[in-house]
Amino acid sequence: MSLRTAEIPDRLRQSEERTLRRLPRLLTFAALLLIPWIGVLVLQIDGRVGARDFANSWIGLDLFEVIALLSLAALVRRRHRGSSPLAAATSVLFALDAYFDVMSAAPSLDYLFASLLAYVAELPIALLLARLSWYTLRWAAQP
Questions:
Q1: How many other β-carbons are positioned within 10 Å of the β-carbon of residue 123?
Q2: Which of the four pLDDT bands, split at 50, 70 and 90, describes residue 73?
Q3: How far is CA 112 from CA 93, 96, 101, 115, in A?
Q4: Model pTM greater than 0.85?
């Protein structure tokens, strides 16, 4: 019994360390994946830069997501106490992005694409970031 119970915390700790080493790369990769999508959105605004419409809003929101993910990757890499609030804020950004994408899509193929993107990418990322925020709370408690 003592051998198995002693192995479990060590295995969990090793798994946790591996995950924390990989997480900054995953966050950076997610941010880099958003850049081509922002390029697609820029091409769709078709000369309406500065106009007050949804296309420009989506570009701004996606840029905020890229900046937040890259900043979060840097903080997680250093196990900084600011990781938890930034992960929570970034989670909210992705959840809002999913909500507004679906709610503003036309009832056609756009709606199907927005729903697919929300359920396959944006909401899972938001959940992962919310969990990361909860997990990194202990970093904030350290002096």
A1: 18
A2: very high
A3: 21, 17, 11, 5
A4: no
